[in-house]
Amino acid sequence: MADTFTTLLRLIKQETGGNENVWGDFLNLQMIDLIDDAVAGFQDVDVSLSNQILLPLNGDDDPTRAAILVAIGLPPDGTRTIQVPSTSKLYVLSNDTSETVTFKTAAGSGLAVAAGDQVSSRVDPNLDDVVAVSVPSATEDIKGIAEIADQTEVDAGTDDERFVTPLKLASADPAVFPQATETARGVAEIADQAETDAGTDDERFITPLKFETSEQLEQSTTSSLGRVIQATQGEVDTGTDTDKYVTPATLASAPTGATVIFTGFVSSTGVGAQFPAGWSVLRNSIGIYTVTHSLGLSDVDDLIICVTAMGEPAVPAPASSNFIYGTVFNRATNSFQVLLGFPDMGTIGGAEHEDHDWNFIAVDNS
Fold this sequence. Notes:
Elements: E1 4-5, E2 12-13, H1 23-40, E3 42-46, E4 52-53, E5 68-72, E6 80-83, E7 89-95, E8 101-104, E9 111-113, E10 118-124, E11 129-132, H2 151-156, H3 166-170, H4 193-198, H5 208-212, E12 229-230, H6 233-238, E13 244-245, H7 248-252, E14 259-266, E15 272-273, E16 280-285, E17 288-292, H8 297-300, E18 303-309, E19 324-329, E20 335-342, E21 347-348, E22 358-364
Parallel strand pairs: 3-5, 4-6, 5-7, 6-8, 12-13
Antiparallel strand pairs: 1-2, 7-10, 8-9, 10-11, 14-15, 14-22, 16-17, 17-20, 18-19, 18-22, 19-20, 20-21
Protein backbone atom coordinates (compact mmCIF):
# COMPACT_ATOMS: atom_id res chain seq x y z
CA MET A 1 0.00 0.00 0.00
CA ALA A 2 1.43 3.38 -1.01
CA ASP A 3 1.76 6.38 1.30
CA THR A 4 -1.45 8.46 1.80
CA PHE A 5 -2.27 11.84 3.31
CA THR A 6 -4.71 13.17 5.92
CA THR A 7 -7.77 14.99 4.63
CA LEU A 8 -7.53 18.28 6.57
CA LEU A 9 -3.85 19.12 7.14
CA ARG A 10 -2.52 16.83 4.34
CA LEU A 11 0.07 15.12 6.57
CA ILE A 12 1.78 11.96 5.31
CA LYS A 13 0.46 8.57 6.41
CA GLN A 14 3.32 6.18 5.62
CA GLU A 15 2.76 2.75 4.17
CA THR A 16 3.27 0.03 6.76
CA GLY A 17 6.80 -1.25 6.33
CA GLY A 18 7.53 1.33 3.68
CA ASN A 19 10.24 3.96 3.45
CA GLU A 20 12.83 1.63 4.89
CA ASN A 21 15.80 3.49 6.36
CA VAL A 22 14.30 6.90 5.35
CA TRP A 23 10.99 6.87 7.21
CA GLY A 24 12.43 9.34 9.75
CA ASP A 25 12.88 11.97 7.02
CA PHE A 26 9.29 11.52 5.89
CA LEU A 27 8.08 11.77 9.51
CA ASN A 28 10.03 14.97 10.24
CA LEU A 29 9.44 16.83 6.98
CA GLN A 30 5.97 15.75 5.97
CA MET A 31 4.33 15.45 9.41
CA ILE A 32 6.09 17.02 12.40
CA ASP A 33 7.19 20.23 10.63
CA LEU A 34 3.79 20.61 8.99
CA ILE A 35 1.96 20.14 12.29
CA ASP A 36 4.20 22.83 13.80
CA ASP A 37 3.25 25.20 11.01
CA ALA A 38 -0.47 24.39 11.29
CA VAL A 39 -0.51 25.09 15.02
CA ALA A 40 1.69 28.19 15.29
CA GLY A 41 3.13 29.18 11.93
CA PHE A 42 2.31 32.33 9.96
CA GLN A 43 2.35 33.10 6.27
CA ASP A 44 2.62 36.49 4.54
CA VAL A 45 0.35 36.85 1.51
CA ASP A 46 1.26 39.73 -0.79
CA VAL A 47 -1.80 41.30 -2.43
CA SER A 48 -0.06 44.30 -3.98
CA LEU A 49 -0.68 43.22 -7.56
CA SER A 50 -3.74 40.97 -7.48
CA ASN A 51 -6.07 38.71 -5.55
CA GLN A 52 -4.42 35.55 -4.27
CA ILE A 53 -5.52 31.90 -4.50
CA LEU A 54 -3.71 29.68 -2.01
CA LEU A 55 -3.45 26.07 -3.16
CA PRO A 56 -3.09 23.06 -0.86
CA LEU A 57 -0.21 20.58 -1.19
CA ASN A 58 -0.12 17.07 0.23
CA GLY A 59 2.84 16.42 2.52
CA ASP A 60 4.61 19.61 1.54
CA ASP A 61 4.91 23.19 2.76
CA ASP A 62 2.03 25.38 1.53
CA PRO A 63 0.62 28.75 2.75
CA THR A 64 -2.88 27.42 3.46
CA ARG A 65 -1.60 25.22 6.29
CA ALA A 66 -0.27 28.16 8.40
CA ALA A 67 -2.18 29.13 11.54
CA ILE A 68 -1.88 32.85 10.80
CA LEU A 69 -2.37 34.45 7.40
CA VAL A 70 -1.08 38.01 7.07
CA ALA A 71 -2.18 40.16 4.13
CA ILE A 72 0.62 42.54 3.14
CA GLY A 73 1.32 45.03 0.35
CA LEU A 74 -0.29 48.21 -0.96
CA PRO A 75 -3.19 47.43 -3.31
CA PRO A 76 -3.33 50.33 -5.80
CA ASP A 77 -6.92 49.70 -6.85
CA GLY A 78 -8.93 49.03 -3.69
CA THR A 79 -9.92 45.82 -1.95
CA ARG A 80 -8.37 42.38 -2.40
CA THR A 81 -9.39 38.75 -1.79
CA ILE A 82 -7.42 35.80 -0.50
CA GLN A 83 -8.85 32.36 -1.34
CA VAL A 84 -8.25 29.32 0.87
CA PRO A 85 -9.33 25.66 0.49
CA SER A 86 -12.82 24.70 1.67
CA THR A 87 -11.58 22.25 4.31
CA SER A 88 -12.10 22.64 8.06
CA LYS A 89 -9.36 24.88 9.44
CA LEU A 90 -8.84 27.57 12.09
CA TYR A 91 -7.13 30.78 10.99
CA VAL A 92 -6.09 34.07 12.51
CA LEU A 93 -6.53 36.54 9.68
CA SER A 94 -4.46 39.74 9.90
CA ASN A 95 -4.75 42.62 7.46
CA ASP A 96 -1.58 44.69 7.38
CA THR A 97 -2.59 46.58 4.24
CA SER A 98 -4.31 49.94 3.87
CA GLU A 99 -7.46 48.42 2.28
CA THR A 100 -10.12 45.89 3.27
CA VAL A 101 -9.13 42.29 2.46
CA THR A 102 -11.71 39.49 2.14
CA PHE A 103 -10.69 35.94 3.08
CA LYS A 104 -12.92 33.39 1.29
CA THR A 105 -13.32 29.98 -0.29
CA ALA A 106 -13.87 29.59 -4.01
CA ALA A 107 -17.66 29.49 -3.66
CA GLY A 108 -18.10 31.61 -0.53
CA SER A 109 -18.73 35.32 -0.06
CA GLY A 110 -15.98 35.49 2.53
CA LEU A 111 -15.10 37.38 5.67
CA ALA A 112 -14.05 41.03 5.19
CA VAL A 113 -11.23 42.20 7.45
CA ALA A 114 -10.72 45.95 7.69
CA ALA A 115 -7.30 47.52 7.29
CA GLY A 116 -5.23 47.03 10.43
CA ASP A 117 -7.64 44.50 11.99
CA GLN A 118 -7.13 40.90 13.11
CA VAL A 119 -9.95 38.33 13.18
CA SER A 120 -10.15 34.78 14.50
CA SER A 121 -11.93 32.64 11.90
CA ARG A 122 -12.63 29.15 10.68
CA VAL A 123 -13.38 27.52 7.35
CA ASP A 124 -16.82 25.89 7.57
CA PRO A 125 -17.16 23.16 4.90
CA ASN A 126 -20.93 23.02 5.46
CA LEU A 127 -21.20 26.70 4.51
CA ASP A 128 -18.29 26.45 2.08
CA ASP A 129 -17.03 29.76 3.41
CA VAL A 130 -14.78 31.57 5.89
CA VAL A 131 -16.66 32.78 8.98
CA ALA A 132 -15.65 34.57 12.18
CA VAL A 133 -15.17 32.48 15.30
CA SER A 134 -18.16 33.18 17.53
CA VAL A 135 -17.60 35.94 20.11
CA PRO A 136 -20.37 36.74 22.64
CA SER A 137 -22.29 39.95 22.24
CA ALA A 138 -21.25 42.67 24.66
CA THR A 139 -23.60 43.22 27.59
CA GLU A 140 -23.51 45.24 30.78
CA ASP A 141 -21.71 42.31 32.45
CA ILE A 142 -19.80 40.56 29.62
CA LYS A 143 -17.11 41.81 27.26
CA GLY A 144 -17.80 40.99 23.64
CA ILE A 145 -18.56 42.35 20.19
CA ALA A 146 -21.07 45.11 19.61
CA GLU A 147 -22.54 46.96 16.66
CA ILE A 148 -22.65 50.73 16.19
CA ALA A 149 -26.20 52.05 16.18
CA ASP A 150 -27.25 53.98 13.10
CA GLN A 151 -28.89 57.41 13.39
CA THR A 152 -32.42 55.99 13.13
CA GLU A 153 -31.75 53.55 15.98
CA VAL A 154 -30.27 56.33 18.11
CA ASP A 155 -33.24 58.60 17.49
CA ALA A 156 -35.72 55.79 18.26
CA GLY A 157 -34.10 55.32 21.67
CA THR A 158 -35.33 51.73 22.10
CA ASP A 159 -32.29 49.57 21.17
CA ASP A 160 -30.37 48.25 24.20
CA GLU A 161 -27.76 46.18 22.30
CA ARG A 162 -25.96 48.62 20.00
CA PHE A 163 -23.70 51.43 21.20
CA VAL A 164 -23.88 55.14 20.38
CA THR A 165 -20.93 57.12 19.04
CA PRO A 166 -20.34 60.79 19.93
CA LEU A 167 -21.26 61.79 16.35
CA LYS A 168 -24.61 59.98 16.48
CA LEU A 169 -25.36 61.44 19.91
CA ALA A 170 -24.57 64.96 18.74
CA SER A 171 -26.83 64.48 15.72
CA ALA A 172 -29.68 62.89 17.68
CA ASP A 173 -33.25 64.11 17.32
CA PRO A 174 -33.80 66.86 19.94
CA ALA A 175 -37.18 65.32 20.72
CA VAL A 176 -35.38 62.17 21.93
CA PHE A 177 -32.49 63.90 23.68
CA PRO A 178 -33.87 67.29 24.81
CA GLN A 179 -31.96 69.95 26.68
CA ALA A 180 -31.81 69.14 30.40
CA THR A 181 -33.86 71.43 32.64
CA GLU A 182 -34.65 71.64 36.34
CA THR A 183 -37.63 69.33 35.83
CA ALA A 184 -36.57 67.09 32.90
CA ARG A 185 -33.59 64.87 32.14
CA GLY A 186 -31.65 65.57 28.98
CA VAL A 187 -28.29 66.49 27.51
CA ALA A 188 -26.26 69.30 29.03
CA GLU A 189 -23.00 71.08 28.33
CA ILE A 190 -20.18 71.80 30.79
CA ALA A 191 -19.76 75.51 31.43
CA ASP A 192 -16.32 76.91 30.63
CA GLN A 193 -14.49 79.09 33.15
CA ALA A 194 -15.70 82.36 31.64
CA GLU A 195 -19.33 81.23 31.76
CA THR A 196 -18.89 80.06 35.35
CA ASP A 197 -17.30 83.37 36.40
CA ALA A 198 -20.01 85.40 34.65
CA GLY A 199 -22.71 83.67 36.69
CA THR A 200 -25.51 84.34 34.17
CA ASP A 201 -25.85 81.02 32.26
CA ASP A 202 -28.74 78.83 33.48
CA GLU A 203 -28.35 75.95 30.97
CA ARG A 204 -24.82 74.60 31.44
CA PHE A 205 -23.56 72.80 34.53
CA ILE A 206 -20.46 73.54 36.62
CA THR A 207 -17.76 70.98 37.43
CA PRO A 208 -15.95 70.92 40.79
CA LEU A 209 -12.82 72.33 39.11
CA LYS A 210 -14.68 75.29 37.58
CA PHE A 211 -16.43 75.91 40.89
CA GLU A 212 -13.16 75.91 42.84
CA THR A 213 -11.45 78.38 40.48
CA SER A 214 -14.45 80.64 39.86
CA GLU A 215 -14.07 84.37 40.43
CA GLN A 216 -17.84 84.64 40.85
CA LEU A 217 -17.93 82.70 44.12
CA GLU A 218 -16.22 85.01 46.58
CA GLN A 219 -16.09 84.76 50.35
CA SER A 220 -19.51 85.36 51.88
CA THR A 221 -20.01 88.37 54.14
CA THR A 222 -22.81 89.63 56.34
CA SER A 223 -24.25 91.45 53.33
CA SER A 224 -23.45 89.21 50.32
CA LEU A 225 -23.75 85.56 49.32
CA GLY A 226 -20.58 83.58 48.67
CA ARG A 227 -18.51 80.56 49.62
CA VAL A 228 -17.83 79.73 53.25
CA ILE A 229 -15.44 77.39 55.03
CA GLN A 230 -16.30 75.20 58.01
CA ALA A 231 -14.62 76.30 61.22
CA THR A 232 -12.42 73.84 63.10
CA GLN A 233 -13.11 72.95 66.70
CA GLY A 234 -10.18 75.13 67.77
CA GLU A 235 -11.57 78.11 65.85
CA VAL A 236 -15.00 77.58 67.40
CA ASP A 237 -13.47 77.36 70.88
CA THR A 238 -11.47 80.56 70.31
CA GLY A 239 -14.56 82.42 69.11
CA THR A 240 -12.74 85.13 67.13
CA ASP A 241 -13.15 84.07 63.45
CA THR A 242 -15.91 85.90 61.54
CA ASP A 243 -15.47 84.19 58.13
CA LYS A 244 -16.19 80.51 58.83
CA TYR A 245 -19.41 78.70 59.76
CA VAL A 246 -20.07 76.56 62.83
CA THR A 247 -21.63 73.07 62.65
CA PRO A 248 -23.92 71.68 65.36
CA ALA A 249 -21.21 69.18 66.34
CA THR A 250 -18.47 71.78 66.85
CA LEU A 251 -20.88 74.08 68.67
CA ALA A 252 -21.94 71.31 71.04
CA SER A 253 -18.28 70.46 71.71
CA ALA A 254 -17.25 74.05 72.46
CA PRO A 255 -16.19 74.78 76.07
CA THR A 256 -18.97 76.05 78.33
CA GLY A 257 -18.59 79.75 79.13
CA ALA A 258 -20.67 82.81 79.75
CA THR A 259 -24.21 82.54 78.33
CA VAL A 260 -26.59 85.40 77.71
CA ILE A 261 -29.78 84.78 79.75
CA PHE A 262 -31.80 87.81 78.68
CA THR A 263 -31.56 91.13 76.90
CA GLY A 264 -33.90 94.09 77.06
CA PHE A 265 -34.04 97.79 77.87
CA VAL A 266 -35.59 100.14 80.40
CA SER A 267 -36.99 103.36 79.02
CA SER A 268 -36.66 106.77 80.61
CA THR A 269 -40.09 106.23 82.16
CA GLY A 270 -38.58 103.44 84.26
CA VAL A 271 -40.46 100.50 82.65
CA GLY A 272 -38.60 97.50 81.18
CA ALA A 273 -39.42 96.15 77.70
CA GLN A 274 -38.46 93.27 75.38
CA PHE A 275 -37.56 90.92 78.24
CA PRO A 276 -38.36 87.18 77.95
CA ALA A 277 -41.20 85.57 79.86
CA GLY A 278 -40.58 85.50 83.60
CA TRP A 279 -38.21 88.48 83.53
CA SER A 280 -38.77 92.20 84.11
CA VAL A 281 -36.76 95.27 85.11
CA LEU A 282 -38.28 98.28 86.88
CA ARG A 283 -36.51 101.46 87.92
CA ASN A 284 -37.09 102.26 91.61
CA SER A 285 -35.21 105.55 91.54
CA ILE A 286 -32.19 107.10 89.87
CA GLY A 287 -29.53 104.38 89.54
CA ILE A 288 -31.56 101.69 91.35
CA TYR A 289 -33.39 98.94 89.42
CA THR A 290 -35.27 95.83 90.56
CA VAL A 291 -34.78 92.73 88.39
CA THR A 292 -37.47 90.04 88.66
CA HIS A 293 -36.27 86.67 87.37
CA SER A 294 -37.44 83.12 86.64
CA LEU A 295 -34.30 81.33 87.84
CA GLY A 296 -33.83 79.21 90.90
CA LEU A 297 -32.20 81.05 93.82
CA SER A 298 -29.00 78.98 93.57
CA ASP A 299 -28.32 80.33 90.07
CA VAL A 300 -28.82 84.03 90.74
CA ASP A 301 -25.37 84.62 92.23
CA ASP A 302 -23.75 83.43 88.95
CA LEU A 303 -25.23 86.35 86.99
CA ILE A 304 -23.53 89.51 85.83
CA ILE A 305 -25.84 92.38 84.90
CA CYS A 306 -24.38 94.60 82.16
CA VAL A 307 -25.96 98.02 81.54
CA THR A 308 -25.21 100.64 78.92
CA ALA A 309 -27.07 103.68 77.64
CA MET A 310 -29.09 103.42 74.42
CA GLY A 311 -27.20 105.04 71.55
CA GLU A 312 -24.11 106.99 72.56
CA PRO A 313 -23.46 106.74 76.32
CA ALA A 314 -24.21 109.92 78.26
CA VAL A 315 -21.16 109.29 80.46
CA PRO A 316 -17.80 107.78 79.55
CA ALA A 317 -17.49 104.02 80.20
CA PRO A 318 -14.35 102.44 81.70
CA ALA A 319 -11.52 102.09 79.20
CA SER A 320 -11.65 98.29 79.36
CA SER A 321 -15.40 97.94 78.62
CA ASN A 322 -18.39 99.59 77.01
CA PHE A 323 -20.62 98.35 79.84
CA ILE A 324 -21.46 99.76 83.26
CA TYR A 325 -21.55 96.79 85.58
CA GLY A 326 -24.23 96.65 88.26
CA THR A 327 -23.94 95.32 91.82
CA VAL A 328 -26.46 92.71 93.00
CA PHE A 329 -27.88 93.17 96.50
CA ASN A 330 -31.05 92.78 98.58
CA ARG A 331 -31.99 89.53 96.83
CA ALA A 332 -35.59 88.49 97.53
CA THR A 333 -37.32 85.23 96.60
CA ASN A 334 -37.37 85.91 92.84
CA SER A 335 -35.87 89.37 92.47
CA PHE A 336 -32.83 91.43 93.26
CA GLN A 337 -31.79 95.03 92.97
CA VAL A 338 -29.10 96.45 90.74
CA LEU A 339 -27.31 99.55 91.97
CA LEU A 340 -25.62 101.42 89.12
CA GLY A 341 -22.34 103.16 89.76
CA PHE A 342 -21.50 105.83 87.19
CA PRO A 343 -17.73 106.03 86.64
CA ASP A 344 -17.66 109.72 85.79
CA MET A 345 -19.15 110.66 89.16
CA GLY A 346 -17.90 107.95 91.48
CA THR A 347 -21.28 108.18 93.21
CA ILE A 348 -24.63 106.44 93.06
CA GLY A 349 -27.33 107.93 90.87
CA GLY A 350 -27.44 111.38 89.39
CA ALA A 351 -30.25 113.56 88.08
CA GLU A 352 -28.60 113.89 84.69
CA HIS A 353 -29.13 110.13 84.08
CA GLU A 354 -32.82 110.01 84.94
CA ASP A 355 -34.07 110.55 81.41
CA HIS A 356 -31.87 107.91 79.69
CA ASP A 357 -33.01 104.58 78.17
CA TRP A 358 -30.76 101.74 79.36
CA ASN A 359 -29.86 98.38 77.81
CA PHE A 360 -29.82 95.48 80.24
CA ILE A 361 -28.01 92.18 79.56
CA ALA A 362 -27.89 89.30 82.05
CA VAL A 363 -24.95 86.90 81.56
CA ASP A 364 -24.60 83.50 83.25
CA ASN A 365 -20.91 83.30 84.13
CA SER A 366 -21.01 79.86 85.78
